[in-house]
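Homework-ish question, so no full write-ups if that breaks the rules, but can someone show me the predicted structure for this set?
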Amino acid sequence: EAGVAQSPRYKIIEKRQSVAFWCNPISGHATLYWYQQILGQGPKLLIQFQNNGVVDDSQLPKDRFSAERLKGVDSTLKIQPAKLEDSAVYLCASSHWGELFFGEGSRLTVL
Amino acid sequence: GQQLNQSPQSMFIQEGEDVSMNCTSSSIFNTWLWYKQDPGEGPVLLIALYKAGELTSNGRLTAQFGITRKDSFLNISASIPSDVGIYFCAGPRDNYGQNFVFGPGTRLSVLP
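A: Not a homework solution, just the prediction itself:
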């Protein structure tokens, strides 16, 4: 069974530029998550989808971050405009029966 | 909101030693998940616990769901160099068990 796929693995941008990350969850997993992991910290939830609906986006900085999962399968996370403090690893995860499975992450560096 | 604390924050051990780490919560959880993260990789699920008092093993790893439901423990026996990494605990912040909060992690270093 294929795992959670994410791209790109690495991205370097300048502040005020935009960036987009893509995630394809494990086949059949209805719940998809985006987490932000700042160096030295645990993952912090940004947004949770159930199929194509948003379950929780209370910690998503909506003035600059957006995410969608239009067909209930793959998802994109966008940051526009990026700030220096957005430098982090963006982890996508999907779940089935209460267990989260993560992708390898997309590492963003904002200069 | 719910917060998880992990201790120790970091530890250095000799190869072959046993390791213990724990995770505590400010509120009751009905699920505990333990993950390991290697540098440059996403977290990998090690053990899932669903019942207070439950003791579950995965090879040299053993995890326990605390009786109070506010803590969990992870033990690694006979550590080897590939055990190096960051260990995270996680628990659901909602009653549906789908919205997970993570602890800050325990960084393990194994000295040869």
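Now go work out the reasoning yourself. Hint: The first strand of chain B starts at residue 4 and ends at 7.
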